[in-house]
Structures are given as structure tokens and as C-alpha cells.
Write a structure and sequence with these properties.
Keywords: ATP-binding, Cytoplasm, DNA synthesis, Kinase, Nucleotide-binding, Transferase. GO terms for molecular function: kinase activity. This protein has 219 residues and is α/β, with parallel strands linked by helices. It is built from five helices and eleven strands.
């Protein structure tokens, strides 16, 4: 039976890499997929991974009816055996409904990838609708780590290394941005609650500094 599967996790946990792997595995078996993406770090019409892998995708605009797009594609004699939707948290709830209809009415598997909550630890509307409708929700097992070494569970927005908790829900950025740009950092719940980023905690690495050793003067 076809399924709507939601693969979720924090930033930097390999969601896009898995999406590209699923595309590779199926295309290697002669299947043809329809790939949708929105606000990818590599630009419009791209699905990219931080590992450097990238493929072409259909950029999802606000007005795009994804179900109607697939119906038109198939009606013209083109082929689609499955659907991949990356950065699905940025999709509107009605677009998630359209993906569910692709599964139910067209009989295609839909694999959606996205983060669940925003920088304020609030659900993205698209992710909320996916949790409500998905046949399965898979939490990725590749754990991103907070600067303290604990498992990262929250996404923090930063400016100049300082965590911010106000602003528009969607501001495109990435981890490891320049200090004066809007960036993101994954944190454990404790440090997200305390608004402690790596910069504010003066924690530049997971390993502790070497303890200083006094040099003894010899006479």
C-alpha cells in the first residue's frame, strides 16, 4: 500500500541526505520520482545536502497545487512512481492535504522531509499537518549534537552568535553562517531554554581545554 511518510528531525541531522539517497536507490531501479522542494540552501529548484550532493527539484510556490501538478504531469503521458518533498515544514497545510491525496487517489508513495518545530520551539503549520495525516512519522536516528555534547532537539536562530526568540517564523539561513548574518544552531532543550549558544557559553568545541601547567623554575 502507498504511504505518506514524514521523516523529521532537527537541522543538521541528514534529512536532505536521506531524501537524496531514497531518490538514488529508486532511480537506480528504473523508477522515476517527482521531487519538490522549498527554500533550499542551494537556491530555488534545488534539493541539496550539506555533504555537497544536489539534484534538480520543483520549487513549491505558495499557489502551487501539488496534486493538480501531478495529475497534469501524468495526464500528459509522463511518469511518476513516487514523490519526494523536502523542507516540508515550509509547505502550507493545504499542500500537505494535497500530498495525502496523491497517496490516496493516485497510489504513489510520498516521502516528506522536514523539521518539526521552529526557532521558538513552536510547530510549523506544515509539519503539524504532516503529523496529523502521515501514515508514518520517522524520527531520523543520526543525532545532531548540541555544543555541550548532548543530543540536540531544538533549532535556535542566532544573530552574531546570540540566540533570538522573536521574528518571522520563516527566515532562510543555515548552520555555520557568518557572525553578522542570521544563522541557526541546534541545541539541547536545556540550553535552548537558557538561550545558551556555543558563542554565548564560550564553548567552541566539545573537548575541554587542556589544563594549564605551571613551569617550575630551576635554580
Amino acid at each position: 500500500m502507498p504511504e505518506l511518510v514524514f521523516f523529521s528531525g532537527t537541522m543538521d541531522c541528514g534529512k536532505s541526505t536521506l531524501a537524496l539517497q531514497i531518490e538514488h536507490n529508486r532511480s537506480a531501479r528504473g523508477l522515476q520520482g517527482m521531487i519538490f522542494a522549498r527554500n533550499d540552501r542551494a537556491g530555488a529548484g534545488k534539493l541539496s545536502s550539506r555533504l555537497g550532493l544536489v539534484t534538480e527539484a520543483i520549487e513549491v510556490a505558495d499557489e502551487l497545487d501539488m496534486y493538480a501538478y501531478l495529475v497534469d504531469h501524468l495526464s500528459r503521458g509522463a511518469r511518476a512512481d513516487y514523490v519526494i518533498a523536502d523542507e516540508a515544514q515550509f509547505l502550507a497545510p493545504e499542500q500537505i492535504d494535497q500530498l495525502a491525496r496523491v497517496v490516496d487517489d493516485l497510489g504513489l508513495d510520498v516521502f516528506a522531509f522536514g523539521i518539526t518545530t521552529d526557532f521558538r520551539s513552536k510547530l510549523f503549520p506544515g509539519s503539524q499537518r504532516l503529523v496529523e495525516l502521515a501514515d508514518r512519522v520517522e524520527v531520523l536516528q543520526v543525532e545532531a549534537l548540541c555544543w555541550c555534547g548532548a543530543r540536540a532537539t531544538h533549532n535556535a536562530r542566532t544573530i552574531g552568535g546570540e540566540m533570538v526568540v522573536e521574528g518571522a517564523q520563516v527566515v532562510v539561513g543555515d548552520v555555520n553562517q557568518a557572525p553578522d548574518e542570521v544563522g541557526y544552531e541546534v541545541l539541547c532543550r536545556r540550553h535552548h531554554r537558557r538561550r545558551m549558544t556555543a558563542a554565548s557559553a564560550r564553548a567552541g568545541a566539545l573537548s575541554p581545554d587542556v589544563l594549564p601547567v605551571d613551569t617550575l623554575e630551576r635554580s
